[in-house]
Design brief:
By secondary structure, the chain is mainly alpha-helical. The chain has one domain. α2 runs antiparallel to α3. It starts with 7 loop residues before the first helix and ends with a helix.
C-alpha cells in the first residue's frame, strides 16, 4: 500500500502502531535492554510497512537515526563517559525523537 489506508480498520491499526512506536522511542534504551529495544522498533516498523508503505518511507530514515543516537547514548552510559557527554547524547536522542513525533503527527493529519 503506497498511501495512507482509507478503510477504518487499517487506519485504526496504523494509529495504534504510531502510538506503540512513540511509546518505545520515548522510553530510551538502557545497557540491559538495547537489543530488545531495537527489536521492538524493528517489529513495529515492519508492521507499519505492511499497513502503509508511505508512512514507513516517511519514518524510516528518522527512526534509523533515533536508533543510532540511542546506541551512542548507551555506549556513553556503558563506558562511564563524563556526565556532560551522557547528557549531550541524551539530548540528541530526544531531539531526534521529537522529529519522529512531528512526522507521526503529520502522517496522522493526512
Amino acid at each position: 500500500m503506497t498511501e495512507i489506508p482509507k478503510d477504518e480498520a487499517a487506519k485504526a491499526k496504523l494509529q495504534l502502531l504510531f502510538f506503540q512506536l512513540s511509546e518505545i522511542l520515548n522510553d530510551p534504551p538502557t545497557i540491559l535492554d538495547l537489543a530488545d529495544w531495537r527489536d521492538n522498533i524493528s517489529h513495529v516498523m515492519d508492521e507499519i510497512k505492511e499497513v502503509s508503505e508511505l508512512a514507513y518511507n516517511r519514518l524510516e530514515d528518522l527512526v534509523v537515526e533515533v536508533v543510532r543516537r540511542g546506541e551512542v547514548h548507551v555506549d556513553d552510559l556503558d563506558s562511564d563517559a563524563p556526565p556532560n557527554q551522557s547528557e549531550r547524547t541524551a539530548h540528541e536522542y530526544f531531539a531526534q525523537v521529537a522529529f519522529v513525533t512531528s512526522e507521526i503527527n503529520s502522517l496522522k493529519s493526512i
